[in-house]
Amino acid sequence: MHVIWQNLPVILDGLRLTIQYSIAAIILMVIIGLVAALMRLSRFKVLQWIATAYVELFRSTPLLVQLFFIVLGLPAILPVNEWFGQLLYPILAAAITLSLNEGAYVTEIIRAGILGVDRGQKEAAESIGMTGIQTMRYIVLPQAFKRMIPPLVNQAAQTIKDTSLLAPVGIVELVYKGEVVIAATFESFKIWGLIATLYFIIIFSVSKCASYLERRLQVDKR
Question: pLDDT digits over 146-180, tens only?
Fold first, then answer.
């Protein structure tokens, strides 16, 4: 326990960074997923093709490969470090890559939620003169959101776990800090156990909050 207490501030600093990256990635993935889902449901073939290509590209390649390609590979052909700064670019690129990867899965979650809303309600909204945008905003999305809570929470939990893949590309977060502590103390069992416990606490808390929200919204289980 002495090793854990002595290095706890370092680990907690990594936890803080992990939480920050997770929040940013979750917000961005929902925005990206919503836009891409609406594009896939659009009447315009070009928008459908772009959204489909995005989803298939990011779902069909490993996240770690995407991180290596964008964070470490892209600077070899473009002066992105000069554009954004050598310290800022890796963090920015890693956060965007993580958001794009998770957003591809969120796209399908949102699309399925929208398609799950009864067609008759859309027709009723059109019959009283509501535009397509108004129907989507006031009728479809509120109902679809209730159905999307469980899969969105699962994807948010997956996003939090996927932040651990930022360490191999040099982004400082919980796993990275843990590796630094292990290199100095050689107490891998204790440190990895602490890190696993912290991940469990975060994800378990997210799941409980989602369950509470789901009950408040009275999602129909039938």
Answer: 788 888 888 999 999 999 999 998 888 999 999 99
Number of structural domains (the chain) is 1
Longest dimension (CA), the chain: 70
Residue 222 lies in a domain: no
**What pTM, to 2 d.p., does this model score?**
0.85
CATH number, domain containing residue 122: 1.10.3720.10
Cα distances (Å, whole numbers) of residue 76 to 89, 95, 103, 111, 188: 13, 19, 26, 36, 34
